[in-house]
Amino acid sequence: MGMREIGKEIIEINLDSLSNFNNLLTAIDKVNCNNKIAIIKFETNSSIFKIQPLNFCSENPPIWCYSMRDVIYLTSDSITVSYDLKYNIDSLKPVLKRHLRNIENNANYPKKGKIGFLSFHIDSTKNISHTKNLLLKIITDFNEMDNDSLHLNVLFENHGIIEVIE
Predict the structure, then answer these.
(1) Considering Cα of 23, then 24, then 25, then 27, what sign does the dihedral take?
(2) What is the phi/psi pair of residue 136, to 5°?
(3) 36: exposed, middle or buried (C-beta count within 10 Å: 0-12, 13-18, 19+)?
């Protein structure tokens, strides 16, 4: 889940050692601002998972141009697609499949062949288990799909969807 820049040192952030999502964001930013690569690591009874977030140093963020159809906004209990479409988190698998494949070229999802991303936000009042559970759900649903040619980018953010006021 992510691409690595060659030559940069990798720093693992143990998810289970943090108390909440904001602590995770702070740890990711600290690593990125030291010109290193953050990898989020967590374990279950049977597996070890490592995820490279699509985050950048907050001190020098890139200019990033994307459309709403390129993003799925996730919280611990909901999914928002293109501002208007709201789903329960239990619908993640079909939404994720449409987001990654978009065979019917639905205007709410990335154009076929274009890589979209997930914007991930958990309320800081919830403990780190909510973050871990949602990451496990994403990984499980992604792994259950025929994902040979699919790539999943996850951006961890300190806010949910930002409404555009025109």
Answers:
(1) positive
(2) -60, -40
(3) middle
